[in-house]
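Give me the fold.
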Amino acid sequence: MPLFCCYIYLCNVLFLTFAVFVAIVSARNDIVNNNFGGDKVNNDEIRKAAKDAGLKLWEVADALGMQSDSAFSRKLRRELPQDEKTKIFSIIEQLKTAREGEAM
């Protein structure tokens, strides 16, 4: 009987350990992805346009003349004014057209 009690205790400890691990991983993912309360991602339409065009953000940053793609990603963290968005959308369209021209 004592061996059975040790087994039950060990199962409970393992279950609680797993539950804590899942909670930590979930919280970490929320921090990394900035998903606090399901808030809208800033400049999501720019990210989506680049993705739909088959472009990486570093390619858009390079076309904008930015020295690093991380600077562009940091810039996208805050909502951009409409004139900057328009400029970025036109660059995405140009890159998409150039890429389609190369494919032919």
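The two ends are 75 Å apart (CA to CA).
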